[in-house]
Write a structure and sequence with these properties.
Length: about 375
């Protein structure tokens, strides 16, 4: 272990020396370009990058009141390290700017302590569709995605159930071993998960965020327990419960679909009763949709999503706004503005002003609502 490595419970000598001078905020440490310290209350958060782009940026905490190092379990997808990074405290989160990284990988938030990727702009609220097995959720979602392919994207869940004949891994589900999924649940990969009809199902944070990253509105097809968990999470969504016209009709649809064994059909029908009771009586759902006649139900669904009379346009070619972050930069903060400046000493400074006044969402996943302005001609800006 060299002097740049950090120990759990013991402060490396060079860090103690740096930290003795009092709280440092967002400054890179003397001994390494890939380490920053940010102080929040009693704790100094040290982000450590390996610099080779393969390992992730590590987080260590120096508890100043105890004089001890803490190595926390950090939730969320971790950013890979890079040529170096800067950090600045804003709105109780640490904004980390990665040097020399791709435009969709430059801005991260460390939400004391979970990582969430910083994204320019906002996304429309995801739509959670729930209801008993066989009611027609998948059918309605397919119709919506077929008519509005550029508007909606599907959240591909993980499941431990076996694939059906026509189902493709990565398209309908991520089919996963139980032991793998249990480990991933422990690692904080899932926004929600539940045991449904004897198998594990879960929505990963990434499944929802990749859809929004592609500029589409995300649709989740999940059971009532999952909807309840999402409702309790930081993800703001619209919740729709799909009801069958009768239990007889639900049974007919399940049987006619021909994808389940007799035992599974009976299990799903038993669970349906509890789901309908919960779905219709709880405060989880914003809308009830009775799926009797398919075409009529589809029209109602479009209406409640504000899509009635809406003509599907061809995809807009609005390119995402990207910051071209200078590799060598310094960071400072004035109120809700983060000033990123580059340019050699005595040369005119190139400035990017990152506006964090409208931050939305947060860990786990993405922090949206960032905006920026470029002040200075020589910075490339892809707009
Ligand atoms: N309004 C409807 N009238 C008649 N049949 C329907 C209607 N809606 C869907 N179906 C049929 O019912 C069956 C079940 O539909 P679907 O697979 O979409 O249900 P689901 O709610 O997604 O079920 P699961 O939760 O098990 O995935 C399918 O064969 C579908 O074609
Ligand atoms: N809580 C979650 N429920 C999910 C998820 N993905 C699907 N589901 C629900 O499971 C049942 C059965 O689905 P099937 O494909 O086996 O018929 C159904 O009610 C789905 O809505 C998930 O990620 N989380």
């Amino acid at each position: 272990m060299d002097q740049n490595d950090s120990y759990i419970g013991e402060a490396p000598a060079f860090l103690v020396e740096d930290l003795q001078d009092g709280p440092l905020n967002g400054l890179e440490l003397k001994n390494g370009t890939c380490k920053t310290t940010t102080t929040v209350g009693d704790k100094t958060y040290v982000t450590v990058g390996a610099g080779d782009g393969t390992l992730s940026i590590d987080v260590q905490i120096f508890d100043r009141s105890l004089g001890e190092w803490v190595h926390p379990t950090v939730l969320g997808t971790k950013p890979l390290s890079c040529k170096g990074h800067s950090a600045v405290l804003c709105k109780n989160r640490i904004l980390v700017l990665k040097k020399g990284s791709k435009s969709d990988d430059q801005i991260w938030f460390l939400e004391v302590v979970a990582w969430s990727k910083g994204v320019i702009g906002n996304a429309e609220k995801p739509i959670v569709i729930s209801g008993p097995s066989g009611v027609g959720k998948g059918t309605l979602i397919s119709m919506l995605m077929k008519e509005f392919p550029s508007m909606f994207g599907f959240s591909v869940s993980h499941t431990t159930r076996a694939p059906r004949n026509m189902e493709k891994d990565g398209v309908h589900y991520h089919f996963t071993e139980k032991s793998v999924m249990e480990k991933e649940i422990k690692n904080g990969k899932f926004l929600e998960f539940a045991s449904v009809h004897g198998n594990l199902y879960g929505t990963s944070v990434e499944a929802v965020e990749v859809v929004a990253d592609a500029g589409k509105r995300c649709i989740l097809d999940i059971d009532v327990q999952g909807a309840k968990s999402v409702r309790a999470s930081s993800l703001e969504a619209i919740f729709i419960f799909v009801c069958p016209p009768s239990m007889e009709e639900l049974e007919k649809r399940l049987r006619d679909r021909g994808t389940e064994t007799e035992e599974q059909i009976l299990k799903r029908l038993r669970n349906a009763k509890a789901e309908i009771e919960q779905g219709t009586s709880s405060n989880i759902f914003d809308f009830m949709l009775y799926n009797d006649k398919l075409e009529e139900s589809y029209e109602k669904l479009k209406k409640l999503l504000g899509l009635d009379g809406f003509v599907a346009a061809s995809p807009k070619s609005a390119a995402p706004r990207e910051i071209n972050l200078p590799v060598d930069h310094s960071v400072s903060k004035i109120d809700d503005k983060i000033i990123i400046s580059s340019g050699l000493e005595k040369e005119p400074k190139n400035l990017i002003m990152l506006d964090v006044s409208s931050l939305k969402g947060g860990a786990p996943g993405r922090t949206r609502g960032l905006d920026f302005q470029v002040i200075g001609a020589s910075l490339d800006l892809h707009c």
